[in-house]
Design goal:
Blueprint (H helix, E strand, L loop, with lengths): L5 E6 L5 H14 L4 E5 L5 H11 L8 H25 L3 E5 L2 H11 L5 H11 L6 E6 L2 H8 L13 H17 L4 E5 L4 H25 L1
Parallel strand pairs: 1-3, 1-4, 2-3, 4-5
Helix pairs in contact: 1-8, 2-3, 3-5, 4-7
Bound molecules: ligand Z5A.
Keywords: ATP-binding, Kinase, Nucleotide biosynthesis, Nucleotide-binding, Transferase
Protein name: Thymidylate kinase
EC number: 2.7.4.9
Amino acid sequence: MSDALFITFEGGEGVGKTTNIEYFKELMVQSGLDFVSTREPGGTPLAEEIRSLLLSTRDEAVCSNAELLLMFAARSQHLATVIEPALKQGVHVICDRFTDATYAYQGYGRKLGTERIAVLEGLVHGDRQPDLTIILDAPVEVGMGRARNRGELDRFEREDLEFFERVRKGYLARAKAAPDRYEIVDASLELDEVKQQVAEIFERRVVERLGAQHDG
Ligand code: Z5A
């Protein structure tokens, strides 16, 4: 069986996922680990088209179920053509968001609840879960402040503070329910301090784990 790890990064808007994924990738390269880096929604030509549909602002209100199904449509294609093939070849996968984002944004943010998400999760990737999920956590105002310095807002970024408070609550509830899979990083700190936490997680959850597997 392949030793390859499936690692996901999660968090609310502007918490620093992109920045810290770049840092995590540097650590992977320095350790000589083969990986693909990808994102959701997206990661394949079809899934990137679905991403554009989901993120663009439009006059027509998007119903929450349609949004949910599009997330899983993109995910299904992404799993079949990028994530599963890489893992089967022993290549680690680093993914910017995955199904935890659906629980947090659609389940909590849009108030769809978790039951129908669990049904779709079972259908699309019942037996595939991330080995490690790093949640970058910060007070909503901090992330929003950082993200909103960047210019034009997408359809999600236009949501209000209460929406993102629910999203944050959703992530923390997920981590609490299955603490072995999650690492929570205090992303409100200075970037150097955030990176220190990420490096410590990398050492403990990636280097030590793979070392132990290879020794065995
Ligand atoms: N979505 C969903 O609803 N359901 C799903 O199932 C999935 C996704 C998969 C697109 O995601 C949207 O899709 C997302 C949820 C929804 N919408 N929202 N919100 P995305 O991941 O592409 O978009 P995002 O969450 O908006 O990510 P982002 O805005 O790119 O933020 P980020 O990657 O977390 O942050 P960043 O770009 O690394 O950092 C933001 C700025 O802060 C930047 O200028 C950095 O230099 C700065 N920064 C970063 N860290 C620090 C620290 N520590 N101190 C100071 N400044 C910092």
